[in-house]
Amino acid sequence: MKSVKGYIRTIVDFPHEGILFRDVTTLFSDTRGFRMAVDQMLHPYAGQRIDKVVGLEARGFILGGAIAHQLGTGFVPIRKKGKLPGATISQQYTLEYGEAVMELHDDAIEAGEKILLVDDLLATGGTAEAGIKLVERLGGQIISCSFIIDLPDLGGRNKLQALGMDVQVLCEFEGL
């Protein structure tokens, strides 16, 4: 039987020379692979209270929506600056090539709600850290951060664990 990792294709030199891009669209497009990934991402939280699933733009929306549906709870998107209508809070973060800003509706999470943060890939941890800060500013309590892929050479898991976060991943790929 194929593992989740077996459904993920690698594209060499994308988006830049020297990068091995881990493409989850091949996982998402396969019925068995997608169901397996969602089921495995849910497994660690069986029996735990989760009030909302927060997905990071953009592939975190795909996973977060499916996971929230399975949990019977709400889904909240964290988006790039300027993409959400209405009142938002923002968080700047650092990328390998500059800075960016993520936003969250200021009424999306109530104080004390238990939150599962979801995305497809954990690299440097900058985007996830921005998401964590946004959720915590609204009083949400992140119970865990869940990803399909970890790129351990980039240190994101260590960064999130240093913030006191539980981090769950389905597979790892060495290199960039």
Name the descriptors:
single chain; 176 residues; alpha/beta; Rossmann fold; seven-stranded mixed sheet; two-stranded antiparallel sheet; 9 strands; 27% helix
One letter per element, helices H and strands E, the order comes to: EEHHEHEEEEHEHE
Our count of domains comes out at: 1
Can you list the strand order of the major beta sheet? Answer: 5-6-4-3-7-8-9
Kindly provide the radius of gyration, computed on alpha-carbon positions and rounded to a whole number of angstroms: 16 Å
Per DSSP, what share of the residues sits in E-state strands of 2 or more residues?
25-35%
Mean pLDDT: 96
> What is the approximate shape?
globular
For the terminal residues, how far apart are their CA atoms? 27 Å
| CATH class identity | Alpha Beta
